[in-house]
Design brief:
single chain, alpha+beta, two-stranded antiparallel ribbon, 34% helix, globular
C-alpha cells in the first residue's frame, strides 16, 4: 500500500476529535514542509512485534549510531497515543531547546528533548508549534 494510503487509513482509524486534529496537523506539516518525503511506520519491528505507536513522518535526516552505522529517518513525526497526540522533532542536539524555547508559550503540553505531547489542538498555540517544527526541520 502506498505511503499516502497508509497515512490516510491510520488517520481515519482514529476516534474523533483526535482524527480531525491529526488530519489538521498532517495538512499543516505538509504546508510547512512542501515536497518533504513522507513516511509511515506501523509500529512493528522486522519480526512483526509491536514496538511503538504508528508514526507519520516528514522530511529526512541521517541518524548516526555509536557503532558507526547510519540510516535515513524522518525529521518530524506525528503519532496518536492514548492521551492525545505526540509531535516528534528529531535532530536537535540540545535536549533542553524545545522545552526552553517553545514550552513557555506552547500551552497545555508536555515538552521533552524531542517530543511535544498534548491532548488536543485546542490546548496549544499552533503558531508556537509551527515555529518548533520549522526550527527542527531547518537543522542539519
Amino acid at each position: 500500500m502506498p505511503v499516502e494510503a497508509q497515512i490516510a487509513a491510520y488517520i481515519a482509524a482514529q476516534p474523533e476529535p483526535k482524527r480531525s486534529d491529526l488530519q489538521a496537523l498532517h495538512d499543516r506539516v505538509l504546508q510547512i514542509l512542501p515536497g518533504a518525503k513522507t513516511w509511515f511506520l506501523d509500529g512493528t519491528d522486522d519480526t512483526g512485534k509491536i514496538v511503538s505507536n504508528p508514526n507519520i513522518g516528514f522530511g529526512s535526516r541521517t541518524m548516526h549510531y555509536a557503532d558507526g552505522k547510519t540510516r535515513e529517518f524522518y525529521r518530524v513525526g506525528l503519532s496518536a497515543n492514548t492521551a492525545g497526540i505526540s509531535v516528534y522533532i528529531l535532530g536537535i542536539e540540545d535536549k533542553n531547546h524545545l522545552a526552553e524555547t517553545y514550552g513557555p508559550t506552547l500551552g497545555k503540553a508536555k515538552v521533552t528533548g524531542y517530543c511535544i505531547r498534548f491532548k488536543a489542538l485546542k490546548d496549544i498555540d499552533l503558531s508556537t508549534l509551527e515555529a518548533a517544527i520549522r526550527d527542527g526541520a531547518a537543522r542539519d
